[in-house]
Amino acid sequence: MDMQHLDTILIVMVAVYGVSVLLHISVLAGLALGMNKAVKQAKQYAEQMEVKVLPVLASTREVLEQTKALVTRLEPKLDAAATDLSDITRMVREETARISASADEITQRFRHQAERVAQMTENAVDGVEKATSLINSAVAGPVRQASGFIAAARAIVSTLRQPRPHSSHPTDEDYQRERQQYV
After folding, report:
1. What is the Cα 107 distance to its own chain's centre?
2. 47-55: which pairs have CB atoms within 8 A and are 24 or more residues apart?
3. Residue 1: per-residue pLDDT
């Protein structure tokens, strides 16, 4: 190949390379301009956010400091309250156990007394039944005897009140009448 031809190829290659470098430079310049614009916009956005966020951060910082001070101030009281609550809970458990034991004891005593009352009532009813039976047998016999004596006394009195028959000896008819009267 000729030298001239080689020079032409080299010139063309250098020209292509030069155009390529220029194209590269223009792309990089465009990117730089775009980045510059993006940085300006980001800076504006950051400034706007700073204007909006800084007061919120300041008030949040104040709230955090107040909360920290409050927690620091209340911490001993909260510890004391937790301790007191624990003590109260323990005492309530102990009292509940005592009350439960007392209630169990009272229930046991009540059952025992109820059993005693039931037994005493049963014994009293049995005694009344026995006394009734004894009184019935003790009174019924003498009452029957007294009734018999009273009936006999009435019969005697009624016989003595009747007028005497004219005959000196009673007849069979008189005996029959008297007998029917008493029967």
Report:
1. 22
2. none
3. 55
Is the pLDDT at 166 greater than 70, yes or no? no
Residue 120 lies in a domain: yes
Range of the domain at 115: 27-140
Count Cα atoms within 13 angstroms, Cβ side, for 44.
5
Whether the pTM exceeds 0.70: the reply is no
Q: Are 165 and 174 in contact (CB under 8 A)?
A: yes
Per-residue confidence at 165, pLDDT binned at 50, 70, 90?
low
Q: Is residue 161 part of a domain?
A: no
Q: Which phi and psi angles does 169 have, rounded to 5°? A: -110, 135
d(CA 144, CA 136): 12
In a domain, 177, yes or no: no
Task: Kindly state whether residue 95 falls inside one of the protein's structural domains.
Answer: yes
Domain count, the chain: 1
What is the distance of C-alpha 141 from the center of its chain?
68
Distance from first CA to last CA of the chain, Å, rounded?
Answer: 185
Q: 155 with 182: CB under 8 angstroms?
A: yes
DSSP tag of 165? P
